[in-house]
Design goal:
mainly beta; Methylamine Dehydrogenase, Chain H; five-stranded antiparallel sheet
């Protein structure tokens, strides 16, 4: 069985697991007692680099990196992510660490709270604020969601390093086609049930976006009420929530190789944020949202209350694909067969905030 690295950021540190054969071994916590909201695994070079965004209750937030699969970590002497003085803002946490595609080696994006995008050209050791998004005329009207005001998703086009899509809670989807020099809202068709105008140009509470493996123009979006698909890189969106027990939830992930395959974890409602029907179930589409299949083999039976957050569901790049999720009960589940069957691989962890996985040598 393929050797896989799984990194789980929790409310009290980072846990790093390795699958060798059929078993899992975990080490940690690294950054003990720090909340790790973001993890990135950069496999574009011969030596994978792990990135972690930790928040210490005393020292504040920082970005760390490891070039030995998490055995040791380095922190820059100066803050890696820092707002310029003229912005009047200070970093609260790093919500996303996303390596760009192979066309932009060394480039890593960081999404932060307050809502901003930062760009690194040295593998995530130093970052610069992407000013055109920060200075966008709509930014002053962005409002904090339940988790704060954050840029929490960054997607780069594998065909064009200058095409970048971000999601903001609560601001909606924004796209740049010129490497971040300019940005435009891209929310046509996405509903904002909490606003007087239910289909505004911006202001939607987007929870997560994933990019299809077969068609980079196809995106999947989990909204605050609503699951959507775009076939034009986010210019327009169509609802694909029919067939799900609830279209409320936080995460969405795409299969790493198979076109039209994506995964969600539905929750009951915004006021009842537990698994839909109190059943621990992942749902998979194999036809780009035309239909959904419940995946539960090996998952807990009976009433279950483990909420899965926006970055706590992911896939690796194995074939067949591994699918992983962690929840606020401190449980980690893994599937080695595209989600057909599951096993509990860790329990009694702190609140799981994010998971990332990749095949490693």
């Amino acid at each position: 069985m393929t050797d896989v690295l799984l990194a789980a950021g929790t409310r009290k540190g980072l846990f790093v697991g390795r699958r060798r054969g059929g078993g899992w071994d975990f080490e940690g916590p690294y950054f003990n007692a720090e909340a790790v909201y973001s993890v990135g695994i950069d496999t574009r070079s011969t030596t994978p680099r792990l990135l972690a965004g930790g928040t210490n209750s005393h020292w504040g937030p920082s970005v760390f990196h490891s070039d030995d699969l998490g055995k040791t970590w380095e922190e820059p002497q100066q803050p890696a992510v820092k707002f310029p003085k003229d912005t009047g803002a200070s970093l609260e946490r790093v919500w996303q660490l996303q390596p760009a595609g192979p066309a932009a080696p060394g480039v890593v994006y960081a999404g932060t709270e307050p809502g901003a995008l930062f760009r690194s050209e040295d593998g995530g050791e130093t970052f610069e604020l992407v000013r055109p998004l920060w200075d966008h005329p709509t930014r002053e009207k962005w409002q904090p969601g339940g988790g704060g005001l954050a840029v929490h998703t960054v997607i780069t086009d594998p065909r064009d390093a200058d095409a970048v899509t971000v999601a903001v809670s609560t601001g909606g989807v924004y796209r740049s086609l010129d490497g971040g020099a300019s940005w435009a809202p891209s929310n046509s068709g996405v509903q904002a049930v909490f606003l007087p105008d239910p289909y505004p140009d911006f202001g939607q509470c987007v929870h997560k976006i994933a990019q299809d493996a077969g068609d980079p123009d196809r995106l999947y979006l989990q909204n605050h009420w609503g699951v959507y698909r775009s076939d034009d890189s986010g210019a327009t969106w169509t609802s694909i929530g029919e067939g799900l027990p609830s279209d409320f939830g936080f995460p969405v992930a795409a299969h790493p190789h198979r076109a039209d395959v994506a995964y969600v974890f539905p929750l009951n409602a915004d006021e009842d944020r537990v698994p839909a029907g109190r059943r621990c179930r992942v749902y998979r589409t194999e036809d780009a949202g035309a239909s959904w299949q419940e995946l539960g083999t090996g998952l807990p039976e009976g009433a279950h209350y483990g909420t899965v957050l926006r970055d706590a569901l992911c896939t690796d790049d194995a074939d067949p694909a591994g699918v992983y999720f962690g929840n606020r009960n401190g449980e980690l589940f893994a599937s080695a067969d595209d989600g057909d069957s599951w096993q509990l691989i860790a329990a009694h962890l702190p609140d799981v905030l994010c998971v990332r996985a990749a095949v490693v040598a």
